[in-house]
Structures are given as structure tokens and as C-alpha cells.
Design brief:
By secondary structure, the protein is an alpha+beta fold. The chain has five helices and 20 strands.
């Protein structure tokens, strides 16, 4: 399994922050994208190879323990993935099960891959670089995913050239709707943010935000009744996963998980599972396209923010009343002992 835990070479995070971040579970791939062929991913600067053998997903360090060639350069057969340099094959649990040059010799344990535990949930493959042996995974909870009448949709991942904390803070922000999302769902003239108050929870905090800002697409045939108040319920699971439950008219709901997986200190891979019992007639491909448009609207803001890191010292930036979620987020990270995140 794992040797002594330490940041990988060329790590972009402060070592103490990396060790704290490594204790959490993050998605690294869509379950539907993982087959027998080796697939590459990066988490917290750790180079990973992901593959499936006998229905089991394996997440391992992307390096052959024999002579250090990335296994993502290799190929596969029904029994595992094969290193392209000397043909060593790795199967279930990352164990080496074939050494072509010495087929009759016992395979030493040193040839097995360095692997991490996995959980398949919400249509995603999750892993933790510092999971405690035998401990139950503490995955973020996604409301209504398993409820009757709800459709499950897993959007394609979305890559962002920015720190995960900046992306998550933007997801929690309700004051930017009228300015950033006026081409998709928001009214540019509806700019006021009614008061709201985050409530601390064991996993971070939650927020009930009521407003008249619609969540129907601007091109939707449906619109809310006059005077309808929309409830957006946020649940922040520190450090980088949040869910948003949007309450539509007629007791309908749309749930979006914003799981920002930190590729490095300056790169994020965003995963966004959706559960809905509203607008079920809209094709899944159209849902993918709409959410991609919303993410693209956010991209310019998130990728150009300065400083790149998220200042946890609240005195370093100015704040307005609409920033209550942002302030709660930074305080939550600070309370967990995180620092400036970046090494440089």
C-alpha cells in the first residue's frame, strides 16, 4: 500500500498544506471513462495511472517499479496493464502478475505498484493519498442522488488554470450572478444580494440563500411565477467540494456538486455530478452544454484573480456584506490549519 507519506517531487504546495490536503478524498476520473486501458490523472502533483481489471478500479502511482517508465505509456490485456519497456503486467490491487523475462520465478513484492484506495460514488472515482488503513472514507454527501424520481447526470470534467480554492469560492459567490452569468440564467438588472447567514457544520458550513434570481435558462419555455423566491441551499465540505440544491417551483429540485480536484496549486480539474427531478425532458447532452457555458463564464474571473492563492488572512482583502460565504470559507480553511498553500 503506502510508504511513509511525503509530498511528491516538484510539489507546488507548501509541505504542511500538502500533508493536510492529502487526508481528504477527491475525484480523479469519471467512472464511465475508466476501462482496461491505462488513464492518466494528477492529484496534488502526484502522477497517477487509473485502470480497471475484473471490474475493480486501480489508482496507482504512474511509474513502473522496475525501471521507472510511466505506465500510461503502456497498453493492456484482460489481466492488467503492461509496461511498454519490459512487459511487466500489473493487475488487481496493482500487483505484478507477469514478468515475461522470468516467467517461472516468484514475483517479489517490490514489483507491485504503489496504490491508493478508491470509492466509486456519484459517477466518479474518488481516492485519498493519505487514507488511514481500515477507516471509512469521509466522502462529501450529495443530496437526492439516490432519491426516487431523480435523474443522475455526470458532466464531463472541466479544467481550470487556477487554484481550487479560488474556483470553490466563486461557486459559493452569489453576488456575481448579474455580472458574469447574464448570458445563461441571471438578470443583469437584478443585482442586489439579500442578507443571508452561513451556519457552521461538522464538515464546513451551510447556507440558505433566498432571492428572486431565476435559475431557469434564459431560453427556457418555463419561467417562475411572479414574485417567486428561489432557495439556493449550499453545503460546503472543506476543503474543495460544495453542493448546491436549487429549489424550483412545484417542489422540483436541481442539485449540483462542485468537486474541485487540485491537480496542483495552480491547476484544478472540476467534476460536476447533477441530480434533478426538474426539466427531465431536456436531453442530457443539452445539460452538459449548458453547464459548460456557465463554467466558461466563470473561467476568466477565476483564472485572472490576484493573488493566485486564496488569502486566508481576512485583512489582506476588502470584503462586502455579500461575501459572507467567502468569509466563512476562508475562516473554515484557516481553522483547519491551512496556510498560504503555495510553495512559491
Amino acid at each position: 500500500m503506502n510508504a511513509k507519506l511525503a509530498p511528491p517531487p516538484h510539489c507546488t504546495f507548501d509541505a504542511d498544506d500538502w500533508l493536510r490536503l492529502a487526508r481528504y478524498w477527491y475525484p480523479v476520473a469519471l467512472s464511465s471513462s475508466i476501462g482496461a486501458a491505462p488513464q492518466k490523472a494528477v492529484l496534488l502533483d502526484e502522477q497517477l495511472v487509473i485502470y480497471r481489471v475484473n471490474q475493480q478500479v486501480v489508482v496507482a502511482r504512474d511509474v513502473c517499479p522496475h525501471r521507472g517508465v510511466p505506465l500510461t505509456l503502456g497498453f493492456h490485456d484482460q489481466a492488467g496493464i503492461i509496461c511498454p519497456y519490459h512487459g511487466l503486467r500489473f493487475g488487481k490491487d496493482g500487483r505484478c502478475n507477469r514478468v515475461p523475462s522470468s516467467p517461472d520465478q516468484a514475483i517479489p513484492a517490490k514489483l507491485h505498484l504503489h496504490t491508493w484506495p478508491i470509492v466509486e460514488r456519484y459517477g466518479l472515482v474518488w481516492t485519498c493519498l493519505a487514507a488511514e488503513e481500515g477507516a471509512e472514507p469521509e466522502l462529501p454527501v450529495m443530496p437526492h442522488w439516490d432519491d426516487a424520481g431523480f435523474q443522475q447526470i455526470v458532466c464531463p470534467h472541466f479544467d481550470i488554470a487556477a487554484f481550487a480554492g479560488r474556483q470553490v469560492e466563486g461557486f459559493l459567490d452569489v453576488a456575481h450572478f448579474a455580472w458574469v452569468h447574464s448570458d445563461t440564467f441571471a438578470d443583469p438588472d437584478n443585482q442586489q444580494v439579500p442578507p443571508y447567514q452561513p451556519v457552521e457544520t461538522p464538515w464546513g458550513f451551510s447556507v440558505d440563500y433566498w432571492s428572486s434570481v431565476s435559475n431557469f435558462s434564459l431560453t427556457s419555455e418555463r419561467q417562475a411565477p411572479e414574485g417567486f423566491q428561489w432557495l439556493r441551499h449550499f453545503e460546503m465540505h472543506l476543503p474543495f467540494t460544495a453542493t448546491l440544491t436549487i429549489h424550483f417551483p412545484q417542489q422540483e429540485k436541481l442539485v449540483i456538486m462542485n468537486a474541485a480536484s487540485p491537480v496542483s496549486a495552480r491547476k484544478t480539474r472540476l467534476f460536476a455530478p447533477i441530480a434533478r427531478n426538474v426539466d427531465l425532458h431536456i436531453p442530457v447532452e443539452d445539460v452538459h452544454a449548458f453547464n459548460h457555458r456557465v463554467f466558461e463564464e466563470d473561467r476568466l474571473m477565476v483564472e485572472t484573480q490576484m493573488p493566485e492563492r486564496l488569502p486566508l488572512d481576512l485583512t489582506l482583502e476588502a470584503h462586502i456584506p455579500a461575501d459572507r460565504s467567502s468569509v466563512a470559507y476562508r475562516r473554515g480553511l484557516k481553522k483547519q490549519g491551512f496556510g498560504d498553500f503555495f510553495l512559491v
